[in-house]
Request: fold
Amino acid sequence: MDLITHVLIAYLVTLGVVGLKVQYVAAGALAGGLPDADAILFPLARRWPVFGHRGITHSVFGVTVIAVAGGLIAPLILPGSFLIYFGVMLLGGILHILLDGFTNYSVPPLLPFSKKRIAFDAERAVNFFMLVFSAASMYVLLGIERNSVALDVYWASVYFLGGFFALYLALRLAVRLWLGRHKGAYGHFESIVPTENPFVWFLFGETRDAAQVRKSFGRYVVGRGLEGPWTIDISLSPATGGEGPVMNAADALERTYPLLAREPAGRMGRMAGETHMFARADPTPEGGWIARWYSIEFGMLGRWLTIEVELPPGDAAPSVHRRFRRVTMPWKETSPGAV
Reply:
């Protein structure tokens, strides 16, 4: 979850717990964002991975250490009680862990005692629409309304935003749990992937043996049901041996699938290993083919992180590019590469 939403939710919760005590509310809101300061620890993370992003700072132990430090330092800046400072900062840190664990990226809440990670897969790690909403809400609360409107009006805004986030997260979790229970009724799906829209979800499945990989993909819309599923079969031993002109869409996908792990300079391989990918292949006007492998987890505003492999006619070498592209999805029209 984005930093602004972390801070805003911690601000709202702390305000609801301690009231209009500025120093404590500020400390709780700050603590809601502090775990993401682990980005500055990257030199240590090279030697000790526990200091990497969403590592020790995203554990109960880590946020407790931060809360103790805050409880000792904060009274030197703004007078207050160590116990209250400690409590609100611990609350903000735990909220951060819970919200990150709510997304499709895992957190290790029990480090350093256990490396087990949790992820509810109920929200995007960064949801652009929520980012904009949270930034606008912060501006209204702290830039427009603070010290400018009646106290009752300010509290009404706080309760509205608190209720909104509670309902939003409850909706996300309810749909995620329902899909987790019923995904088997729609086909062979293993993974549930949230989108920026809480009413739209992706379902993904993959099976493989020595001969082929089968990828299944569907789009679930609350109130409408499943669109799809679409399936592609990728032979691990292309009949053409990967040489000569590309014969059809299936041949294009079979030839480009191995390139995901090799081009360019390994970046594609790392991305391919971290996300679920589906594909379509289309002929080009020049007589070649282009295969687009798109991530169903990395996207924003209708554009998807896409690996494009262009297979020119003849024996010319393929070209590989990584782009954010508005891809025509298989549910919008029938694709020769997504049957």
